[in-house]
Amino acid sequence: MSKKPINSQKSPGKHHSNLKSKMVFKDRDGLGAYTADPFAHERVIFNNDTSVIIQDMFPKSSVHLLVLPKSERNLLHPFVAFEDPELLADIKVEVERAKKMVANELRRKYGKLSKSEQPRIQARDADEPPDVLPPGRDWMKEIITGIHAVPSMNHLHVHVMSREMYSDHLKRSAHYNSFHTPFLVPLEKFPLAKDDPIRLVGHGPWHTVDLVCWRCKRNFGNKMAKFKVHLAEEHDEWKRE
């Protein structure tokens, strides 16, 4: 994603002065720095009273954002934190905002290559463009969202990302399987019932689960190097759909 994406916004939130701290955020607490002082970080692309949206430092797909709530509950496990209806409602609004950002960025990156996008491009570039452009490709359908059943970072965060899993940072099987197995819990599943089996999803080990292509469903077992070559091929075809 570009460093200054369209539709980014950095507006001061009412909790800014309360959250700003001299604490050093590192390791599993690293995400806390972004809500504590959003204005100090280039990765922050949106900031308001309830949330911060950032670019993931180690993206696992071509566009990968994180939505971080500004909440006193943001150190709770998401299964517990999202039992708060106000927090859940707020985060759903901001996740929709992040999805639009991802969709816009996908259109910017791949629109010229996409077959489905051509009627929109042709109408836009016509000598007399219509008042309303054709919808073009539905990039929103190319987005996955959710939280990890066992988050790797302590501060509450929701992943909003393109689903094609094309990235130099995708290096291990667990990187892939953490987004394409039940380990990623969709936001629409919340709040969870007390007896919801999702609560039993644990650490895995997810590196032992077979690598199955998100697009063609071909099973690559544990052959990560071969699988990454395949993902690059699928990415090239996917962006041209």
How would you describe this protein?
One of its GO terms (molecular function) is mismatched DNA binding. InterPro entries: HIT-like, HIT-like_sf, Znf-C2HE. It is found in: Nucleus. Keywords: DNA-binding, Metal-binding, Nucleus, Zinc. With 241 residues, the protein is α+β, with helices and mostly antiparallel strands. The chain has one domain: 2-Layer Sandwich (HIT family, subunit A). It has seven helices and seven strands. Strands 1-2-3-4-6-5-7 form a seven-stranded mixed β-sheet, with helices on one face. The longest helix has 26 residues. The radius of gyration is 19 Å and the shape is globular. About 5% of the residues have low confidence.
Give the DSSP E fraction (strand runs of 2 or more residues).
Answer: 5-15%
Shape by Cα distribution: globular
In the CATH hierarchy, the architecture is 2-Layer Sandwich
* CA radius of gyration: 19 Å
Distance between the termini: 20 Å
How many runs of DSSP E, i.e. beta strands? 7
Based on the model shown, name its key terms.
HIT family, subunit A; alpha+beta; 7 strands; seven-stranded mixed sheet; 7 helices; 241 residues
Concise overview:
It is found in: Nucleus. The protein is 27% helix and 12% strand.
List the helices and strands and how they pair.
Layout: E1 9-10, H1 16-19, H2 32-36, E2 44-47, E3 51-55, E4 64-69, H3 78-81, H4 85-110, H5 118-124, E5 143-148, E6 158-162, H6 173-177, E7 184-185, H7 224-238
Parallel strand pairs: 1-2
Antiparallel strand pairs: 2-3, 3-4, 4-6, 5-6, 5-7
